[in-house]
Amino acid sequence: MKTRIKWIENVAFMAESGSGHAVVMDGAVEGGGRNLGPRPMEMLLMGLGGCSAYDVVHILKKGRENVEDVDVDVEAERADTDPKVFTKIHLHFRVKGAGLNDKKVSRAVDLSADKYCSASIMLGKAAEITHSYELIE
């Protein structure tokens, strides 16, 4: 897996993935940026949420659950001093579908956190990561 980062101006950078997709990362206006895109640390949280959501959907569909929608809110706390690493991260899943099995949803969230989501497992070595979920009919 590869990516390429190209400086645009000030604190703005273009990141291109090995699969050919691109995203602009930028800093806040008060930090010299133009607020053109997410911050690099926000990108880490987005990757974590995407990785976990992918797993949960895949596991539930494989288990023949009628999943209609999944969204994940990711909240994080960072250290006060440099390096301002994540210290706590919480993922809250909202899983929508008719007749979803609570135990299967719980298992899917746990499997993602403990076995399948590389981002979660990697970030979990530096931060306390917790998960919760709710079912929506």
TrEMBL record:
<protein>
    <submittedName>
        <fullName>OsmC family protein</fullName>
    </submittedName>
</protein>
<dbReference type="Pfam" id="PF02566">
    <property type="entry name" value="OsmC"/>
</dbReference>
<dbReference type="InterPro" id="IPR015946">
    <property type="entry name" value="KH_dom-like_a/b"/>
</dbReference>
<dbReference type="InterPro" id="IPR036102">
    <property type="entry name" value="OsmC/Ohrsf"/>
</dbReference>
<dbReference type="InterPro" id="IPR003718">
    <property type="entry name" value="OsmC/Ohr_fam"/>
</dbReference>
